[in-house]
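Progress note, project year one: complex with zinc ion.
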Amino acid sequence: MYRTKRKIKKGPIIAAILIVVIGVGGFFAFKEIRYRMSNTYKLLKIGYNETETNILIEKYDKEKLKELIQDKTLDSNIPKLLQQKYYLEKNLDRYLTYLKDNPEVSVKDAVSLVNVNRDRDFYEDMQETDTSKGDLMLVNKYYKLTKDFKLDDIVPISNQFAYEDNEIRKHVYERYRSMWNAAKEEGLLLIVNSSYRDYETQDAVWKDYAEANGEEWADNKAARAGSSEHETGLALDIVTNNVIMNEFENTEEFKWLQDNAYKYGFILRYPKGKENITGYEYESWHYRYVGEEVAKEIHDLDITFDEYYAYYLDK
Ligand SMILES: [Zn+2]
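Model obtained:
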């Protein structure tokens, strides 16, 4: 028998194995290095959980994310804020400060409150409101009309629809009459109790209060000149027969307005439970004209005009 003993050369095999090992190892090492350089890894390392990390990567501004990683900032309010419906990036620092100063406030409420400037004092650093927004101009304790604001379409409201001496802008009057007629068909009676007031009148009202009982008391009773919605000619105080304002919420007329006012372009401007946001006590009688489209949106979204303005109009 003749057997050949094939000599196996080990050298090339070892070399091949080495190449494979180095190759595979290198591949994983490369992957690992790349992972360690990723934002995901860095965020997890800082202490964010997986969900928070994904939100930050998906929704946070790129520059701000870079900063956060550099500073190793761990603040779980940031991913929570990014998920809020009405989150506005320009307000981020103010949200965070507000939450720090008011730990009992929820993230959702902080967004609402800061968006409408409630982290600032009333009547301080008042801004002139943008009257070019027309029916959507915002007048409150942060945005005011100036003394020069004049309207040339103010008309008297007939005694059929209002108490004596009421005036309002013409197009608002037309919409109010349509609403009045619709209510009447249901056997209900709407009466305008108060309506347009010019700057001088508002000034006189507030000053009378302030002289009688001091500024703080006056601020609770009336808006300062330039800050009352009644000066826009877009607001109506509506009541019904023999009912004083505070009792209006118990009437059928009020219930009807809750369901129907928006169809005519009016919204309840200072709702119950939203005092913190509007800066006003609940007023079941105060209606503001914003036009049908926006009134419907505000009605459907169930938010205040202040919030709507901050998120949808002030851009
Ligand atoms: Zn009013």
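The mean pLDDT is 94.
The longest strand covers residues 283-289.
No further modelling is planned for this target in the current period.
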